[in-house]
């Protein structure tokens, strides 16, 4: 835990972290984020984290799978409650799309590609905004 807090402070400039005190409602629609940290350089991993933070989703709403190939059994359990998946350049995003047609899947290039081709960042941000809009639409429907 200390290494995570050190990373947050030294790399991302975050000085405090507030953790939720309540247990998340398992019936709340879920927003899943897939990225493969084993395939990312340190710089690309930092970009992936920034992309996730830029979504500004409440912690209890989303779940990240940063080793999606290794977490496939956990993913299949959790995907039953998923509504939206944001795939940051993994092959597993296509697998989700094929095997869970009821889930809205949005794809961006891998953060590694975004580091190499900065001109794609605008396109990736637009796709992230589409994912957020789809999730917002679903949660509005869910609340009513």
Task: Describe the protein in words.
With about 140 residues, this protein is an alpha/beta fold. The protein contains 6 helices and 4 strands; from the N terminus they run αβαβαβαβαα. It has a 4-stranded parallel β-sheet with strand order 2-1-3-4, sandwiched between helices. The protein is globular and about 40 Å long. The N and C termini lie far apart (about 40 Å). About 5% of the residues have low confidence.
Keywords:
144 residues, alpha/beta, Uracil-DNA Glycosylase, subunit E, 4-stranded parallel β-sheet, globular
List the topology elements.
Layout: H1 2-10, E1 30-34, H2 42-54, E2 62-65, H3 72-78, E3 82-88, H4 91-99, E4 104-108, H5 111-116, H6 121-143
Parallel strand pairs: 1-2, 1-3, 3-4
Percentage of residues in strands: 5-15%
Domains, number:
1
CATH H-level superfamily: Uracil-DNA glycosylase-like domain
Question: How confident overall, as mean pLDDT?
Answer: 81
CATH topology: Uracil-DNA Glycosylase, subunit E
Short description:
Helix 2 links the parallel strand 1 and strand 2. This protein has six helices and four strands, in the order H-E-H-E-H-E-H-E-H-H. The chain is an alpha/beta fold and 144 residues long.
């Amino acid at each position: 835990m200390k290494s995570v807090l050190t990373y947050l402070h030294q790399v991302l400039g975050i000085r405090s972290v507030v953790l939720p005190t309540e247990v998340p409602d398992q019936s709340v629609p879920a927003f899943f984020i897939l990225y493969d940290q084993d395939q990312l350089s340190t710089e690309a991993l930092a970009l992936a984290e920034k992309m996730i933070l830029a979504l500004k989703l409440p912690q209890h709403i989303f779940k990240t799978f940063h080793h999606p190939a290794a977490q496939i059994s956990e993913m299949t359990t959790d995907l039953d409650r998923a509504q939206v998946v944001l795939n940051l350049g993994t092959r597993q995003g296509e697998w989700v799309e094929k095997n869970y047609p009821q889930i809205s899947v949005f794809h961006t290039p891998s953060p590694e590609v975004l580091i190499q081709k900065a001109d794609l960042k605008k396109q990736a941000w637009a796709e992230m905004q589409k994912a957020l809009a789809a999730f917002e639409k679903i949660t509005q429907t869910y609340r009513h």
